[in-house]
Amino acid sequence: MTSRLDYVTTNPDAITAMIQAKTQMPSIDARLRALVELRVSQVNGCGYCVDLHTVEAREAGEAQQRLDCLTVWREVPFFDPAEKAALAWAEAVTKIAETGAPAPLFAALSDHFSEKQIVDLTWIIAQMNAWNRVAISFGHEPKIRSV
Questions:
Q1: Distance in angstroms (rounded) separating the CA atoms of residues 123 and 127
Q2: Over the stretch 38-47, which tens digit does the pLDDT of each residue have?
């Protein structure tokens, strides 16, 4: 995809507001947040955000093997029940027009997360979907890093 315009410098106030909003969900730890943001970005096909959140996940201490297998998280033993509940919710909310955010997935969250954490997790998912839509719409691409 070719970059269409630089939305970051065109409306820096909107970007600042989105970044500030990100700080309002502190109850979700950095590793889980990065996994959820990465999975939402994978589902949405946002190359820029997949690249960004893979880096953030590694910086938060995430294992490369888990990152490599995130797209098949249901089929591997690397994710604990809380992570699986969060990832299932992230996919359902991302595909909300198809899924309707099913009650059993919502109920499963309460086995692992407080009400505040469920709200924060859902805001993280919603915000990541917004970021993906903006980045994809404007053709934002990751920079090539040296190997």
A1: 6
A2: 999 999 999 9
